[in-house]
């Protein structure tokens, strides 16, 4: 009975661990990407990541190595009215936010298939689900990411590869720091939970989606937004009391 209980306990613990698994995290030295690296490494995964600059990568490596993580050594937006976007703007945003993710999936497919239990988690945005004033091209790329997750989830399910998309609202990262500083009141007013999200609140969801415990979840776009995308209209409290 003791051996059987130990086997059951070990099986249960394995569902909540990434030990023996490898993860590739693009843009892993800042913001949400940095939080995801720490989350997955903390769950036991071996991480490969990259950065736009060698300086950022080396700085993070020193920090991660001090924590005992095994590290072997992406999104952007331009906000302007649609008529003002140039062909160069379109190519840059589409290439960074969508094309790079698409190409990574193509390159990673043989490895994910060989693993026997692959998982892809796209970092999308609520702007791919509802309208947000961050530029029409950005919203289009995130909508494309969400649809790609659904398509690949169906196409690659036979290879035991799961594909999901995580869609955050404004999260406190360097990329949107100036927007939060200037528009925090407006952002919070649309957020039922009444605050700005933190990177580790996104990374915890990404970590879960990578775990064996999430083995039956695929093709989903999950908004992590403090309730923003489901926030409809409420009468003032004086009228509902």
TrEMBL record:
Taxonomic lineage of the native organism: Eukaryota, Viridiplantae, Streptophyta, Embryophyta, Tracheophyta
UniProt source species: Durio zibethinus
PANTHER family, A to Z: NAD(P)-BINDING ROSSMANN-FOLD PROTEIN, TROPINONE REDUCTASE
Protein name (database record): Senescence-associated protein 13-like isoform X2
Gene Ontology molecular function: oxidoreductase activity
Cross-referenced InterPro entries: NAD(P)-bd_dom_sf, SDR_fam, TR
Family label: Belongs to the short-chain dehydrogenases/reductases (SDR) family. SDR65C subfamily.
Entries under Gene3D superfamilies matching the protein: NAD(P)-binding Rossmann-like Domain (3.40.50.720)
Superkingdom classification of source: Eukaryota
One Pfam family from the record: adh_short
Keyword Cell inner membrane belongs to the record: no
Keywords for this protein: NADP, Oxidoreductase
SUPFAM superfamilies: NAD(P)-binding Rossmann-fold domains
């Amino acid at each position: 009975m003791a051996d059987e209980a130990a086997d059951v306990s070990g099986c249960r613990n394995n569902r909540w661990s990434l030990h023996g698994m490898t993860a590739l995290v693009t843009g892993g030295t800042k913001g949400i990407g940095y939080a995801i690296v720490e989350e997955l490494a903390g769950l036991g995964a071996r991480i490969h990541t990259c950065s736009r600059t060698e300086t950022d990568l080396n700085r993070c490596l020193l920090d991660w190595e001090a924590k005992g993580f095994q590290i072997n050594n992406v999104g952007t937006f331009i906000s302007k009215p649609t008529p003002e976007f140039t062909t160069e703007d379109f190519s840059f945003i589409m290439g960074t936010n969508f094309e790079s993710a698409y190409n990574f999936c193509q390159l990673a497919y043989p490895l994910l298939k060989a693993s026997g239990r692959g998982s892809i988690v796209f970092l999308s945005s609520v702007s791919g689900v509802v309208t947000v004033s961050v530029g029409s091209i950005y919203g289009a790329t995130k909508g494309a990411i969400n649809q790609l997750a659904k398509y690949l989830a169906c196409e690659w399910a036979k290879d035991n590869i799961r594909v999901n998309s995580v869609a955050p609202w404004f999260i406190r990262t360097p990329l949107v720091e100036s927007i939060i500083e200037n528009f925090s009141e407006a952002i919070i007013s649309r957020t039922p939970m009444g605050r700005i999200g933190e990177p580790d609140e996104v990374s915890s969801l990404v970590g879960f989606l990578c775990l064996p415990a999430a083995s039956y979840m695929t093709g989903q776009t999950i908004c992590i937004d403090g309730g923003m995308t489901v926030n409809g209209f409420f009468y003032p409290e004086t009228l509902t009391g």
